[in-house]
Amino acid sequence: MWVTIAQFILSLSILIVLHELGHFSAAKWFKTRVEKFYLFFNPWFSLFKVQKGETEYGIGWLPLGGYVKISGMIDESFDSEQMKGEPQPWEFRSKPAWQRLIIMVGGVTVNFILGIFLFAMVFWIWGEKYLPTDRLPTGVAVSEMGYEIGLRDGDHIKKIGDKVFDRFNAGLLNKEIIINGAKTIEVLRGGNPVTIDIDPKYSSILSKYENKDKRLVYLNYMAQVGALAKDSPADAAGAGLKVGDKILRVNGEKTPYVKDVIDAIVDTTYGDETSLFVLRSSDTLTVTYKTMHEAKRSLIQKLVGKKAEKKRRIGFDFAPESSFFKFETEKFGLGAACAKGWNESWGFLGDQVRAFGQMFSGKIKAKDSLGSFITIGKLFGTDWDWKRFWRMTAMLSILLGFFNLLPIPALDGGYVMFLLWESITGIKVPDSVMEKTTMIGFFVLIALMVYALGLDILRQF
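and the corresponding structure tokens:
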């Protein structure tokens, strides 16, 4: 947990400081006074602060963002006193509209540049690891939902919509159906080409929060024990499982692949004895155990008398996919990595724009896509992986730039909207209107944050 929190705070700190530095640098360029530069918010007190020249630099205690306080600008501080005096040459309000516009887009510009740069560096340093689909001799294993859509175990997927499926990526199927509205999946089944028509309803079904981790297909590989949890049924005294055991049958049912074992274990009953027929080196033996389970009940479940959710636990993990498949790593020179980083960034941004379009059209419910810092933090994982960390930071940087450009007062996009109006019409929006709309936008954002946090808390139950 602490590794996850540390990664999230470090990533957030990098993004906030560089975003605000974009505003700060543009303001300084046009000789506009910056009164404060803060990482995190500091209502009532600061964890650290120092005055250098005309600017106070500090760290707040509320890690929900950061800010620069620019003289003569209506912002989230709602300092209306400074707006009552005569405009001064060093104030934001005294600058031409085009200069104010550049100051306001400085933050998101840095976010987009940072996202492209980080993606490029990830590709340059680590390359891109992938598994060619022509190295799947037994095709794919299909989940229950994948079966409903029309896929079958052993299918060799060739295309999803307009996307060629030459590198195995289970998430690509979900993305193309949810965001791009893919209508068909082309597969080879028994050596014959088959086209599967996708029912449009699956766009909404797959986008539901409870289905966010569900995949339509999995790699089809041997069920071999890779790790054991101490004092679990799998690690029981006597004939417990051992790392390297190959599971051939569960309760007499043939289960040569990982998916078969998972399906067979899910079908077992609590408290009943379950037998695993395994191959250990050159010997075969039977291991028996009783599935332990964890009962999880929320306060809401207790109040309404709903039964606790039970999760079956055996206490072992399968050997990694890399033990059975030969993955490739595509390496990039610096120039190629920069081009790849550019394409990755704008492809990711395009996905976000299309996802918003799906929400506005009602195909995706907003509550299924909303998440607070809890949802975002979980994406970093519980082990420190620098490649994943920088890739996640790149994606969050693009997201931060995108959301800040939305035409909502209190966000950069709200100011940009008013400044574009002024630039086109020559009519400046009154300060009183700016102040009121900013306040409304600020409270709307706070409400959304509280709502998203509430959703995440409920999801934990």
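(Above: one complete record from the training split.) The chain is about 40% helix and 20% strand.
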